[in-house]
Design goal:
The chain contains 5 helices and 12 strands. It has one domain: outer membrane lipoprotein receptor (LolB), chain A (Clam), CATH 2.50.20.
């Protein structure tokens, strides 16, 4: 009787019911599914609320931006239409919004832009999914099961394509839902031009795509002013809501 109970317990154990795939297979299947979902999506639009703080030798500056994002996942033609912009709580006149757009472009990166090698895309711009970028990545270890908050998740470490070498990304950690293989969270360590940033992004699956819903970035930024180098503390919080997905029904 004891042997029967042990056999039943073994057969019904979560490890057997949800066998872990190899990290290569997990990334391949997930990436393929993400790219297929991208192809079926004509446009994605959402409201972005972002607050970032730069604190250093020249004081503390807090910027809050609310914008309307539109673009096609996997594409480079994202637009960010600013609707409200405040610095240290004070509204910024519309004629001064363009410099903020340019600053965001330098900070968050632009696919195909100077120095962009995929790392900046993990911070932004906007809602770029990671499937196309990371599906060709190289796993840096086995799939591991661990708790992510209140849920069980599969964790895998990934070295993006083209890394290591010139480029900002050191490593990416991904957490997946074992039941659906949906991406739950990513954590990226970036070291661009002497700066060090850690970006954590939470995701939600919509129409087959794992899209960011919250983003947290913190670390240090290395800057130069008047021929001198300075290190500034940097934090960023962003959320994405009221998303609309236009799917190609053909």
């Amino acid at each position: 009787m004891c042997r029967v109970l042990l056999l039943v317990a073994f057969v019904l154990s979560p490890a057997v019911l949800r066998a872990q795939p190899s990290p290569t297979a997990l990334l391949r299947d997930w990436g393929r599914g993400q790219m297929e979902a991208e192809e079926a999506l004509e446009e994605l639009a959402c409201t972005e609320v972002m607050t970032w703080v730069v604190d250093g030798a020249f004081g503390r500056r807090e910027t809050r931006l609310e914008a309307y994002l539109r673009g096609r996942p996997g594409g480079a033609d994202w637009t960010r239409e600013i609707r409200d912009l405040r610095v240290n709580g004070e509204p910024v006149p519309r004629e001064r919004w363009d410099p903020v757009q340019r600053y965001l472009g330098r900070l968050l990166g632009r696919p195909g832009g100077p120095g962009w090698r995929g790392g900046a895309a993990l911070l932004g711009p906007g809602m770029l999914p990671l499937g196309r970028l990371l599906a060709r990545g190289r796993p840096a270890g086995p799939v591991r099961t661990e708790r992510l908050g209140e849920v069980e998740a599969w964790r895998v470490e990934v070295i993006p394509p083209g890394e290591p070498g010139p480029g900002p990304v050191e490593r990416v950690t991904l957490w997946f839902d074992p039941a659906t293989q949906a991406l739950l969270r990513s954590r990226t360590i970036l070291q661009p031009a002497g700066s060090t940033l850690v970006a954590t992004v939470d995701y939600e699956r919509r129409e087959g795509l794992d899209l960011p819903v919250a983003r947290h970035v913190e670390g240090t930024l290395r800057t130069r002013r008047r021929g001198q180098s300075f290190t500034q503390l940097f934090t960023l919080e962003a959320s994405y809501r009221d998303c609309t997905l236009h799917v190609d029904e053909r």
